[in-house]
Amino acid sequence: MSKQLNDFQLTANFNLKEFQCKHCGQVKISPKLVNTLQALRNLLNKPIKITSGFRCATHNKNVGGAKNSYHMQGLATDVVIEGVDYEELVDTCFNLGFTGIGVYKDQGFMHLDVRPGKPVRFR
Asked: Between the chain's N and C termini, which has fewer beta carbons within 10 Å?
């Protein structure tokens, strides 16, 4: 059986297919985002599950994403990390190089991105 198109390792713990659009399978992902996620994974020594990576315009609209979402540019991901308090991770994430951080405690995930400009914390 042949390998799936997007099935290859980007870092020790992240595969390109984890970031592909759930609607169409396309993928565009920033190396800076992946490398910063790997640094967080190494620091925590815990798996990080990607729940939303790249989004095509259709998928972004379907999930209610922002009109100019960083997910559509390959600069953002939503993650689940079991056994951590996301609020306690915010400063660590900024120090590692994430520039956009959203904590969705009620929904059980954290948004991380590497947008240009000044760091932003929301939610």
From this structure: N
CA pair distance 97, 103, nearest whole angstrom: 16
DSSP character at residue 26 = -
Indicate the burial class of 63 (C-beta count within 10 angstroms; 0-12, 13-18, 19 or more): middle
pLDDT per residue over 51-106, tens digit each? 999 999 999 999 999 999 999 999 999 999 999 999 999 999 999 999 999 999 99
Beta-sheet pairing, 109-113 with 120-122 = unpaired
- pTM of the predicted model, to two decimals? 0.94
Bridge partners (DSSP) listed for residue 9: 15
* Spatial CA neighbour of 101 closest among 113, 116, 118: 113
Select from 23, 19, 80 the least CA-distant residue to 48. Answer: 80
Given its phi and psi angles, is residue 84 left (phi above 0), alpha (psi -120 to 50 degrees) or beta? beta
DSSP state of 77: E
Place of tokens 């190494």: 42
